[in-house]
Automatic annotation (TrEMBL):
<feature type="transmembrane region" description="Helical">
    <location>
        <begin position="51"/>
        <end position="71"/>
    </location>
</feature>
<keyword id="KW-0472">Membrane</keyword>
<dbReference type="InterPro" id="IPR019886">
    <property type="entry name" value="Na_symporter_ssu"/>
</dbReference>
<keyword id="KW-1133">Transmembrane helix</keyword>
<keyword id="KW-0812">Transmembrane</keyword>
<feature type="transmembrane region" description="Helical">
    <location>
        <begin position="21"/>
        <end position="39"/>
    </location>
</feature>
<dbReference type="Pfam" id="PF13937">
    <property type="entry name" value="DUF4212"/>
</dbReference>
<feature type="domain" description="Sodium symporter small subunit">
    <location>
        <begin position="7"/>
        <end position="83"/>
    </location>
</feature>
<protein>
    <submittedName>
        <fullName>DUF4212 domain-containing protein</fullName>
    </submittedName>
</protein>
Amino acid sequence: MSEEQSNDYWKANLRLIQWSLVIWALVSFGFGILLRPLLSGIKVGGTDLGFWFAQQGSILVFLALIFFYAWRMNKLDRQHGVDEQ
């Protein structure tokens, strides 16, 4: 792998990590804490949506991000020829 290909690979990897962290922060900190008063009028499972995000939603989104990251990194590895055979 050339240095240019290696740089492209790591730029794509870091971009994926950054977007995953932004989504996780938005869901856990944004929806669960900052926007909780705005979400309190929406009911989900007998409780308000802000509380649900703080207790359950951020965990579920984090798990979904883990699977998405693994899937996307496998695809990125294949594109750059560094996948495990």
